[in-house]
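Deliverable D2.4 — example input (structure tokens):
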């Protein structure tokens, strides 16, 4: 449970970083809150994301540590 709490706090930081870059998660043209959360969990576990979703490409512009698997 403690790990989940930490993930949510870090997720809030990801949302703040994205907002500081000029986008509000969930707004038109911005990454969804769920994409922010999945990206945060991938970062915490040093995992690449396999996706077909522009939200993750948007997040990569403000979080360069995000990695994608091109399978």
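Example output (designed residues):
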């Amino acid at each position: 449970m403690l790990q989940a709490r930490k993930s949510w706090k870090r997720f809030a930081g990801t949302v703040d970083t994205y907002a500081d870059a000029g986008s509000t998660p969930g707004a038109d043209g911005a990454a969804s809150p769920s994409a922010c959360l999945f990206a945060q969990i991938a970062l915490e576990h040093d995992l690449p994301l396999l996706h077909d979703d522009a939200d993750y490409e948007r997040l990569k512009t403000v979080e360069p540590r995000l990695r994608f698997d091109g399978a």
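Residues 2-20 form the longest helix (19 residues).
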